[in-house]
Amino acid sequence: MNIAEIFNRGGLAMWPLLILSILTLGTIFERLWFWGMVLRGETKLAEQILDAARHDWQEALELAANACDQPIGRFLYTPLQLIDTNPEIFRLALEAAADEELSAMRRGEKVLEATITMAPLLGLLGTVLGLISALSSIRLGDIGTPATLGVGLGISEALISTASGLVIAIIALAFQRLFQAFLLQQAQIFRRTGNELELTYRQAWLEQRIKGEAEKTLF
Length: 219
Prior knowledge:
- By secondary structure, the chain is mainly alpha-helical.
- Helix content is 83%, strand content 0%.
- It is built from eight helices and no strands.
- The longest helix has 70 residues, at 149-218.
- It is rod-shaped.
- The mean pLDDT is 85.
């Protein structure tokens, strides 16, 4: 059997499964493209901004501004705009930027979750409807006679929708786990980079305060 024949024999439940599979594949391809863009050169970019921040905050700000098409660039640009502010406000800006970026990275997660939940149920529904159709024409007196020869074929065709639903759900689950791993990795990068930037900023802010107090004492 080719794909069209399998689809036709799967029953009415194959149509919502087809819609779910299209949405799932679209989400998977979009997320793969997104994560491919995010992970490419991200660590190097973060190191460049951190190195710049250690000796020139304005240079670090410019580097982050030029990288605002990347999540790591936007994440670092938000607090770097607040130079000469209180370190606690700087830290809050880091946390808010991280939360915003990580929330945006979860886009498409609900589609995969819905597919994982609904696809097996739709497949099971298709099987139940197929079994009802296959068994409804059987009479007790026909059991064991040639009149029931087509029942086995009807039952096998009814199971097509269940198999299809399981395949779609398994694919969605595999990629959901992959994207969750990427998200966890991204959260770790944000945490490590943010901590280093905050520490650098606190040291610079403290040195500036000490220098300012020393100048006041001289005058």
